[in-house]
Amino acid sequence: MSGTPERNEFSVVASESGPRPPDGLEASRNDFPLEIRDSSRLNFLIEVVRSLPTAVTVQDEQGNFVFVNAAAVAQFNVPARDIVGTVSGAPLPSKELNDRINLARGVLQSGGSRISEEYIRTDHATKIFLTTHEPVVISNRKLVLSSSVDISRQKAVEEELFRCAYYDELTGLPTRRVIEQHANSLIREGEHSVRFAVAFLDIDNFKHINDYYGHASGDGLLIEVARRLDLGLRATDMLSRISGDEFLLLLNPVQSDAELAEYIEFLLQRLKAPFFIDGSELFASASIGVSIYPDHGDTYEVLRQNADTAMYQIKNDTKGGAAIFDSGMQHEALTRMKIEQSLRLAILDKRFCCAFQPKVDIRTEQIKGIEALVRLRNDDGIIQAPGTFVDLAIELGLIDELTHLVLAEIMRSIDLIDDAFGTDVSISINVAAKQAGNVVFMTSFARALEKTGCATRFIVEVTEDAFVAKTRFQTEILPVLRRLGVKISIDDFGIGYSSLSALADITADEIKIDRSFIVDIHKRPRSQGILKAIESLGDALGMAVIAEGVEKFEELAYLQAATRIKYAQGFYFSEPVFLENIEPGKPAVSKRGTSSDSRSVQENRSVYSRANGYSR
Asked: Where in this chain does the record put each GGDEF domain (predicted)?
């Protein structure tokens, strides 16, 4: 301020001790006149305000600073002498202080208080203050009293909470909530004049990648997929990771279906290029389902569901492709939903039974063992083969319950099994690769096998995925089964993900060669070479080799004449049979060449009903 201060006017800086009594007065406070004692009280109050941890400033009608306390000096990081007492109208040394001058004038002009967040930059960081600006009148003077609180830490916590709630931690992409809100806002604001697409993307076989290369590489792949998908997106588009290996794209606007299809195909090709993660070269593909607003739905939820339906359609058909939703897919989705419901009810009602297919010594024609094959009885008494429900049971997480039901059915039928096949035959039961790596399930299943009292008769058949994937099957589960005397079989060998290094660690008892290598083996030289290699591998590792799917005499003749394979299984010897259909005194195995027609009749025969039902 300029000029000589009037009575009651003050100009104070943080480094000063406040107003002083006039020169020549006595030091004793009791000898002071009243106004001098008031001045001392003012001095005391100024000292209190100066020492407050809250930043306090006072500005006059022109916005000039007439008081700053120590906390305010620290807040602006400017010496007090450069804030208070400068010539009116002269610029102050920081942008934030000059902004305060304009703000103070606005507060006095409006006559109302104001609260603002102030971002003040220092040499090391930017701090955030919550400041209240209050117009006051003191000694007939209009002033602005401002107080600030440092909320930097609080804002950092809020930012972190916001980021966790709305952004994916791994990829940094928005979550499903963000993309949902964005889509809903487009629908509200654009009505039906806007067209945008929702693309649901799922990485194919991600579990195998995760299991084989490890979760760190799986996470690295997700990050790289997100980066590739994000490349080239327009400012109006949005990419979100909604869960696991699933992403959602909102493409806005969509000019034409052809343009959309071309762009989706471009994304598919971009994802098929190799990924280099932690020194490994990974290959991936994705299945994409697309729905368009307003053609395929007038709400975000309907659009997402329809894109999801289209994605599963393409995933079930071919994988690695894309499909735009149509009404036919909706019908298929409803049909699938009914099947799911039917399966859940069937498990609840225990409407399952077993058919048994022998494993035969191809030279002596003696039965070595039998494989239990689960069948579902629908409400009409029709038997359904496992191809219609096992994969769905795995997908829905119902396969564990189903496997326990199969074991319970085997034990309910153990006397009939012994009568039909003999007391020394082994009994094979299938366990999905996903189950084999599940320690909780396999532990409970091992206990159930032990409780049968005949665990040594059982062979657990698992696909080679269970051995090759980085699961706990070999390290934790296999020793438990070995202690019980349960044998292990590698099912469908040759069509999975085996490598020689992985097979070297396997301690299975038998290898079942997949039927694809056996079909017309007598006239397929390349398959013959592969068969001999597998045979040699089985010999080297001490595992019995079983040929699956033998249906023709010529196939059997080749196995007998040109290989050392001892055992086979297939329709040539016997279809899967129900115990109640085996006539007493007749052999359970009769050689025959079976056509696909006779096979379907067998699968649809009526189920055997037992009065006591099933039990766990």
From this structure: 194-327
